[in-house]
């Protein structure tokens, strides 16, 4: 258990780093500069946040496994109540945070938690089938609901967010991390959290399978785009990429499969690293950052982007400037986490979260 938790903290830190890189790039309008760096930054888009959500699902299982397996209806109600309270708090805080950062993930998180609360007593198979159904539901909804409604693609701004219709569409279907289908990542994490991730055989199976699925998915859809683009008339390149890409927008099934498999691969690597480099100072610092992930997530917008705004760096920057800025913020976050956790058991927002929601 100890090494597994260390590995989860490491993976959480890497997820935060990836999200900072992506969000700073977007906020700074960093579309210019070295193409290699632009491609490198693009690797994190939709991948770091997927890992973050999967880790949340694992955390839910670790939190509730004992109560779930006790067989006591009282214990199960207690577990469900805890997850509901955390979900409602995340939804509330995230909606307060959204006017500052429209790409916020916390209010979506809250909705994922509410779904998880309903499913925590279900079997492993039921959780996996529920996730698969959610993944399949998204393209079906695209046939009857306009996915592009309320979007200004030029500025990546979502219009009419604070209307009832706009908010429901945003949260459930076409926001940055909509419940359908993003909650499937959380359900995958819940299933992973029920496995014995300390078992070498299970880790090896997850590592091989995730790598094979990732490579097969990316290769298959690359070939599909090339074949369809060359042989089918009436569809533009943009249309083909929209329907057959493995990018985050829109979150088609191939994106979820690709992002989930890459996230599982990184997660298992983190578990291995924490097994074999138990005294690494670098891994220790990164794990401390993982323990304060919620604090660092909020800080990268409030503090990090706040400083960039004061410096006049939120528009028209190069990719090098955004990566350097992300690196500086993350190094500062590492230092803060190490110093803070020398004195306190958890990060400031983590402590407040547990204080309020249990």
Q: Strand-and-helix sequence, N→C?
A: HHHHHHEEHHHHHHHHH
Q: Could you give the order of strands across the largest sheet?
A: 1-2
The stretches of 5 or more residues where confidence is low (pLDDT under 50) are none
Approximate strand percentage: under 5%
The overall number of domains is 2
Shape assignment: globular
Q: Main sheet? A: 2 strands, antiparallel
State the distance separating the first and last CA atoms. 22 Å
Number of E-type strands: 2
Decide which structural class fits the backbone. Answer: mainly alpha
Residue-averaged pLDDT: 91
- Please tally the helical runs, counting DSSP H or I stretches of 4 or more residues: 15
Please give the radius of gyration in angstroms. Answer: 20 Å
Helix % is: over 70%
Task: Give the topology.
Blueprint: H1 2-27, H2 35-42, H3 48-69, H4 73-97, H5 106-119, H6 124-142, E1 151-152, E2 157-158, H7 164-174, H8 179-193, H9 200-231, H10 237-244, H11 253-276, H12 281-291, H13 293-310, H14 319-343, H15 348-357
Antiparallel strand pairs: 1-2
Can you describe what's shown?
The chain folds into two domains: 2-198 and 280-357, no CATH class; 199-278. It has 15 helices and two strands. The mean pLDDT is 91. With 358 residues, it is mainly alpha-helical. The protein has a two-stranded antiparallel sheet. It has helices at 2-27, 35-42, 48-69, 73-97, 106-119, 124-142, 164-174, 179-193, 200-231, 237-244, 253-276, 281-291, 293-310, 319-343, 348-357, and strands at 151-152, 157-158.
């Amino acid at each position: 258990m100890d090494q597994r938790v260390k590995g989860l903290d490491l993976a959480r830190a890497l997820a935060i780093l990836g999200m900072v890189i992506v969000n700073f790039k977007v906020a700074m309008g960093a579309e210019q500069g070295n193409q290699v760096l632009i491609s490198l930054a693009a690797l994190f888009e939709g991948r770091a946040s997927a890992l973050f959500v999967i880790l949340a699902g694992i955390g839910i299982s670790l939190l509730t496994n004992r109560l779930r397996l006790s067989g006591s209806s009282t214990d199960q109600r207690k577990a469900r109540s805890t997850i509901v309270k955390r979900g409602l708090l995340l939804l509330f805080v995230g909606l307060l945070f959204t006017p500052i950062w429209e790409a916020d993930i916390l209010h979506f998180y809250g909705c994922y938690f509410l779904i998880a609360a309903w499913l925590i007593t279900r079997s492993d198979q039921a959780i996996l089938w529920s996730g698969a159904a959610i993944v399949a539901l998204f393209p079906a909804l695209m046939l009857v609901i306009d996915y592009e409604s309320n979007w200004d693609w030029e500025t990546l701004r979502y219009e009419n967010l604070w209307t009832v219709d706009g908010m429901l569409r945003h949260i459930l279907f076409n926001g940055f991390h909509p419940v359908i289908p993003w909650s499937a990542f959380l359900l995958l994490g819940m299933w992973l959290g029920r496995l014995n991730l300390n078992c070498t055989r299970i880790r090896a199976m997850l590592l091989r399978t995730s790598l094979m699925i990732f490579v097969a998915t990316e290769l298959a859809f690359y070939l599909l785009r090339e074949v369809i683009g060359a042989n089918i008339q009436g569809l533009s390149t943009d249309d083909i990429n929209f329907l057959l890409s493995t990018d985050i927008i829109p979150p088609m099934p191939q994106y979820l499969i690709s992002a989930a498999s890459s996230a599982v691969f990184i997660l298992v690597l983190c578990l291995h690293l924490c097994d074999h480099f138990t005294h690494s100072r670098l891994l220790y610092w990164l794990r401390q950052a993982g323990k304060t992930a919620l604090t660092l997530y909020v800080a990268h917008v409030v503090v990090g982007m706040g400083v960039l705004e004061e410096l006049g760096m939120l528009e028209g920057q190069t990719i090098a400037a955004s990566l350097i800025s992300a690196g500086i913020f993350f190094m500062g976050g590492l230092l803060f986490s190490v110093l803070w956790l020398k004195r306190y058991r958890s990060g400031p927002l983590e402590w407040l979260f547990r204080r309020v929601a249990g």
